Amino acid sequence: MNARRWTAGLLAAVAAVALVGCTSGGGGEKDCTSDGLTITCTPDQRSKTPKVIGELLTGGQYDVSQARGQVVVVNFWGSWCAPCRAEADDLEDTYQATKASGVTFLGVNVQDSKDKAIAFEQGRATYPSIFDPSSRQALNFDIPPNSTPATVVLDRDGRIAVVIRRAVTKDELRPIVERLAAEKPASN
Description:
alpha+beta, seven-stranded mixed beta sheet, two-stranded antiparallel ribbon, 4 helices, 9 strands, disordered N terminus
């Protein structure tokens, strides 16, 4: 069995289990809504903070826990991915438009060579990207992204608020990010 099929199968299984975590204890009503490609969770039903630690494409280390207090937009991408190329400008535009309001972005490069990833990112993104050729970072999310591209938006407490399992546009992403940036952290 090749590694991609194994990883895809594992991610699908984790996604099925993770969606169960979005149900309330009462009558089984979902507090996380999903249209199959986008999952949005209410503040009281957001899953725990994922552990995202890795080597940056440009060198050095990144740890998402250092961004606590900020909204963090995590985008999974690959240089080989046509939808990733299509959404790159929209991600950068949203980053530039929202960073002053306590928003940061992180790319997670998957299933790629480092040289191709660096070449792809030059001139497209001013925010950092983790190099994750084995796609292991996705396994750290209770609601995994399980597609490429995928965008996960963490609230100021580092909890998963929104998962988008397809390419995004700035017209879709910016209002989500602005709404989360306006929320008060639960830890305050």
